[in-house]
Amino acid sequence: MRKTKPKKRIILPDPIFNDVLVTRFVNDLMQDGKKSVAYAIFYDMLKLVEQRVKDTELTPLEVWKKALENVAPAVEVKSRRVGGATFQVPMEIRQERKMAISIKNMILFARKRSGKSMADKLAAEVVAAFNGEGGAFKRKEDTHRMAEANRAFAHFRF
Question: Which of 37, 45, 70, 90 could disulfide-link to 122, CB 3.0 to 4.6 Å?
């Protein structure tokens, strides 16, 4: 590579839970630079999650983290050209990318849901992901299925 790798930006933890992962989620949730609105949506979503999963002894933040883990893919396929043919090569994903993909999928499928507010839609997606269902969980399953189908090309890994 010609250029040096860019420095990792330090993400400050959120004010209430003192957690960096919450800030990363809020940063992806944010639109038009309105971080205070994104934080309000996130904390409202946690209150709704608390109401919807009363039967578990987990806190809403733990439910949200478990939901993120449930939608994080372990492998993905990348296109690789070998001798004029393009193969879908399955590759393992590093931890930071796993979290980034799961956060983005969770927000994407929450936005597609029908509901009153974004907090409501996000809470529904989090509860669905926690229970192993919903759009984001289905996306993970599809990714794993595609990687499994292309396992024969795993030797083209670079």
Answer: 45
